[in-house]
Amino acid sequence: MKKVFFFLVAASFSLAVTAQTTPAPVATKKADMKDLRKDLRELKQDKKQVKQDVKTGNGRGQAQAVAEVKQDKQEVKQDAQKLKQEGVKHPIKRAQHQIRKHA
Fold first, then answer.
1. Element (H or E) spanning 45, and its range?
2. For residues 90 and 33, is the Cβ–Cβ distance under 8 A?
3. pLDDT tens digit string along 54-65?
4. Going by C-beta distance under 8 Å and a sequence separation of 6 or more, which residues neighbour residue 64?
5. Helix axes 59-85, 29-56, angle to 10 degrees
6. Count of CB atoms within 10 A of residue 40's CB?
7. Torsion of CA 53, 58, 64, 69, to 10 degrees
8. Quick one: how far is CA 24 from the chain centroid?
9. pLDDT (tens digit per residue) in 88-103
10. For the stretch 67-94, what's the b/e string if a residue is b when 16 or more beta carbons lie within 10 angstroms of its beta carbon?
């Protein structure tokens, strides 16, 4: 009888402890899509900056803007890959459509 009592007490403590632990926060699809849209907007702005620097002949600004475009493209690819793993079909096209829809 004593063994059963101790077993029940230990089981209740273990359940209480596991119920109080919080799991690591998981990024949602909605937040990831928002991040992708933000990156696409930045990419568009940087491309405009490159065109403007080429037009004005600003070599330093052009080189810096080209580097930013390259970095933004990498971020877009990473975000798209992450969203594909989460089950979103054609994340870049969806994000571009959402940007045009709400612009």
1. helix 29-56
2. no
3. 888 888 878 888
4. none
5. 160
6. 20
7. 20
8. 16
9. 999 999 999 999 988 6
10. ebbeebeebbeebbebbeeeebeebbeb
Per the structure block, which two tokens stand in for 14? 């273990």
- The structural domains of the chain, with segments of one domain joined by +, span 26-101
CB 93 within 8 A of CB 83: no
- In the chain, DSSP finds a helix count (H) and a strand count (E) of 4, 0
What pTM, to 2 d.p., does this model score? 0.68
The pair of structure tokens assigned to 23 is: 């799991």
Q: Length of the chain in residues, anyone?
A: 103
> Within 13 Å of residue 30, how many CA atoms lie on the same side as its CB?
0
- Inter-residue contact 69 to 47 (CB < 8 Å): yes
Instruction: Report d(CA 46, CA 61) in Å as an integer.
Output: 11
